[in-house]
């Protein structure tokens, strides 16, 4: 079976590849085999893929693909939470060995309807719980820009796969920054939609007390916009819905954003120190915005860092513990410490200390923060900040098998002090690859808008992409 030359394949985003298929320039099978060849070439180096569904993808093509906006484009799922019929989702946990899904998640059904060819799953820390992708079950994923450093997490395998050129877009999820963190680490565009913009059903109604969202990591803005068009919207039984969409995001991004009022946030609410390179990236982005006609002033969003951190950890810990206890009951026994990695067990233990009242107070705290931010956005259209507190860090300290839990926690808080605020409030937020260090480490810049204003972010993202193109800035792995 013929394959494209890799350089030719990598020069295209998913939208362009779909256009080639529609015009008969290439076949879906040629694209799939090109993606598989690239995956096999770089997998030993970066370890991005946990499951290979190559033959399933070939069969799907042979049986005929739906006609959609991405017909024939190779695609990867994250190996946590979402289900694809006939395959397992490991959640990077030995507890889920051999569990085969009987039906697709709603999101996966929508990916299939869009014509995407799903041929594998990407690595994630156990239960998607960490900001680095280092797992006892599936091994360590390495950053294509520097193999000694993390690609971020929890969608680290997805980010590494896109950065290395296996696919132009891959599915991720974001409960505390897990799309934006790896996007920043790997030089990609990572968009977290408004709460409930994309469906989590039919197996769950919400994740981590409403903080989790699902979308993709991409190299182009238009791919992210078009994939959100293909997947967004209420599905039967959803507990709530995001504000309705006025028109497709691929149309929104062609509209100039107008003159925006931008709050430049250089310090996290926690007061944690921020690397000079991350500050430089944010300041440079602020100057770029001013050159595009926007109004920028330094400002700090409202909120009590300790209160919010306590609330977020309660919701995450209870969500993870409840999921694991359900799985253990299916196995006919109690959950044991040796079933999971040390960091995961810490979450389980913490959940056991919380009362129902404390859990409800955590929910109240994040929803109060949403109201605070709504007031803040009466003055500012956009919050601009570094995505991370550090450039991509070395592998090791944020491994979920790190026995020094205090060191793990300190490393996590230092690395990711900005992103989780917008999970708590449910606001749309994106990491944009606007900066690289002199030694070629990507440094993302984060832009966040008021609840429901995904359209505004796409307008701004497209403007930034045109002003400071990044598509051809790729690693050489």
Automatic annotation (TrEMBL):
> Which residues are in the Amidase domain?
30-457
Q: Does the keyword Hydrolase apply?
A: yes
Any one GO MF annotation of this record: 6-aminohexanoate-cyclic-dimer hydrolase activity
Q: Which UniProt keywords apply?
A: Hydrolase
Q: Which domain of life is it from?
A: Bacteria
Read off the InterPro entries from this record: Amidase, Amidase_CS, Amidase_dom, AS_sf
Q: What EC number(s) does its UniProt record assign? A: 3.5.2.12
Against PROSITE patterns, the record matches this protein to: AMIDASES
Extract the Pfam families matched here: Amidase (PF01425)
Q: Where are the transmembrane segments?
A: none
Similarity-based family: Belongs to the amidase family.
What is the protein named? 6-aminohexanoate-cyclic-dimer hydrolase
